[in-house]
Model the fold of this input.
Amino acid sequence: MNGTTVTAAPMENKRTLKDIIAFVLSELKPRGKMLTPFNVISGATIILGAFLILYRLVRGLGAVTNLSQDFPWGIWIGFDVMVGVAFAGGAYVLTFVVYILRSDKYHSIIRATVLNGLLAYVFYAGAIFLDLGRWWNITNPLFGNKFGANSVLFLIAWHFLLYMLAEFVEFSPAIAEWLGLRKVRRFLGSLTVGAVVVGIALSTLHQAGLGALFMMAKGKIHPLWYTEFIPVMFFVSSIFAGLSMVIFEGSISHRVFSDKIDHRDHTAYDAILIGLSRGCAVAMFVYFFAQFLIFIHGWHWSLLNTPMGYWYLIEMIGLVAVPCALFLQGARSGSVPLIRTAAVLTMIGIIVNRLNISIIAFKWWIPLSERYIPSWMEIVITLAIIFTEVWVFRWIVTRMPVFGGVPAWAEEKHT
Done:
């Protein structure tokens, strides 16, 4: 790849630890305009969110959230974790395609996809920390008096931690290239395939594991959304959710960071989007067909002519079947705008589905006036987490060889 040159550290054989520290400190300096509308709005939100997080940790959940005994999970779980982890699914799907199936077609976007997945787990899955009533017990699954080994959350906690480590190893060659560490880069590159295999196994398990959490809520989730196959549905939906996020994030990145991307990669990007849209269409068809079989087997016809039934049809037809058809048509006609439209609709559908299962269809019989509605502080903290992830992503992309600018000495073995 011959993208725009990325600032690199001095050559390894001429550098000391002091040189590396000085280089990293120099990279911390801001680049570009600071007082842009996005920076001002997002920066203010992040600062306010930081104060609210501190306030929540000191005063407890009740001081910040509208959670209750009837609705113990809010948007920090329903959106930040359930939706965020699904959107991060593109990392395990594309690493499987690139490193296991050996498809070089998607190689140019693999680092950005892995980085996006890693940050999603660090920030969104980190919302679990905020949702814990006794947040100081966050280490219990790792080392504590009571590990809770018979809990699904114990399994998910370990999967999250190990998967974040696997994704970090997958992305680490870019860090070594940024620092100019040739020997370290060579060693980390040799670990990539192993990390990918471990990461795929872990991601497959915990995507399904998040769905398994709701199997314990039978009788509390509306019959149209509850099924013993929730883990399978979560896993399948994470495939097209993750690929849709790759399309959405990649389309924005190819405009915002166009100076970091090689002209050849720009030219080939439309073909990449068409390939991703085919993958989304296949996964969505499988998901829709499976959901239809579950619906038929459950004899839920009478539930369709109810308010929740209408909402279910909107989700399944408007936010699954329609974008599936758009993906298919976009791939056939080569229409990139159609593919991007389908990706946005799919992302909305994933958000709706996860919120339906965790909040909206949870204890649906309770009157609206008594149901959970997130407080403004919960919303601000969620926005602060999202904006922080965007800032970190932008900082890394503008400094490290994510889209291009790979040092010449690393290009031959670029991973």
Summary: The chain has one domain: 42-411. The two ends are 11 Å apart (CA to CA). The domain at 42-411 is CATH 1.20.1630.10 (Formate dehydrogenase/DMSO reductase fold). The longest helix spans residues 263-298.
